[in-house]
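Form 7-S
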Amino acid sequence: MNYSLSEISVICNGELSGTDRLVTSVAVDSRNAYSGSGTLFFALHGAHHDGHNYIPLLYGRGFRAFVVEELPDVAGFVAAG
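Output:
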């Protein structure tokens, strides 16, 4: 899989915030997300968990690409247009 974040934002009818980068894999479960630089994390709301709560942890592991419903208020997390 090789898509840019700008391509994915068009496919998802979303808005790219920050730097465009190449995505080589996706993750939806923070427990199984090990690679940071090319991985896109989908912060999903579930019955018992909210993926948005794991963004600080993943950001600390080097993740820089997230699909979110709302921008998190996390120190060090940069959302720039």
